[in-house]
Amino acid sequence: MNKLFLILSVTLLIISVSCKKQAGQGGQATIQGKVYLRKMSPSFQFIYQTPAENLSVYIIYGDDLTYGANTNTSPDGVYQFQYLRKGSYKIYVYSNDSAGTVGPPINASAPKIAVYKEVNVTSKKQTVDVSPIISYY
User: Fold this and answer.
1) Interatomic CA distance for residues 102 and 110, integer angstroms
2) Which of 53, 87, 89, 98 lies 20 to 30 Å from 28, alpha-carbon distance?
3) Is 81 exposed, middle or buried (0-12, 13-18, 19+ CB in 10 A)?
4) Is the residue at 55 inside a domain?
């Protein structure tokens, strides 16, 4: 009987340790923020900044290689990812190259670059604000 109890105890311990929840959906935490579009002149002088309306925002869970979800910003540039577990996340948007050396206006057909913000959710019901994120156009 003692051997059976020992085997069951070890098995349950291994299962409980290996089932640790990773970063991602299924929790009660929230990541939110605001994205701005910034316009620069060809000589790299600031022209103006405005909230980014209807811009795609992406989230990468933990060490994943691709994004796990995306959302669009509201008319005032606000976004939100809800129901997250504790862990590390990367939030990103696409932007023109801020210096203009790779993308527009020098090379209009160049691909956009990703602007990342790294976030750590450390408690179950935490709300983390990731503001501002700047996207150049």
Assistant:
1) 6
2) 53
3) buried
4) yes
